Amino acid sequence: MNEPVASQTYAAQLRRLADITARVREQRAEAHTWYERQCAAAERAVAEATEQVRHAEEELVEAREQQERVDAEVAHLWQQVRTRLGARRLGGPPAPVNGGGGTDAVLLLTRARDLLDRAGQPGELPGSVNPLLALCGVAGAVVAYALGAGARALGVGYGGDLAVGLPVLALVVTLLGPLVGLVPARVLADRRHAVLGPRPITVVLGAGLLTTALLLTLGR
After folding, report:
1. Are residue 33 and residue 75 in the same domain, yes or no?
2. 10-residue block means of pLDDT along the chain (220 residues)?
3. pTM, two decimal places
4. Range of 173's domain?
């Protein structure tokens, strides 16, 4: 037969059962709270990862568009190089250099475009061609003086009004001799892809004026 349980022992068991039930309830509440926090953290992580993926896709699309623009600009600049240098046999543009990912491609293209623009602009003739420029001035003065002398000879030969008008015309042509020298000087500058600046013009006109003055003095 079962022995009767004392009331004090029964009450203690009830209190113990109540305590265990309370602890289980607290642990269950803590477990639910922890689970909800983990779910919220996971949802936030998924949302952040989704946002990062979206940004990465946008950056990828932008990078591809920029690459297409850069490739088109490179092809255009390379075609200008081939045209200006006359290097028709050159192949395609050079391939990108490995390890240059940290350099701004747009900045490099801007520098290349500026360099190409400066290279395409004609410069001034160097000082080494001054003898040729002086020779152009001398040649222009000699040609003009020869034409003037021929006009004077025609005036003397035909007589009449021509004997009066042709010497005046001959003097005008002779005085324009220094300017005639600018024509071959301009041809020289064009062949060297340069401009006929103030210094070359001064050299040509100075040599032409000296030659004209010398020819007029000797012709008296």
Report:
1. yes
2. 58 84 90 93 94 93 87 80 63 61 68 70 75 88 83 64 63 81 86 80 89 78
3. 0.47
4. 126-219
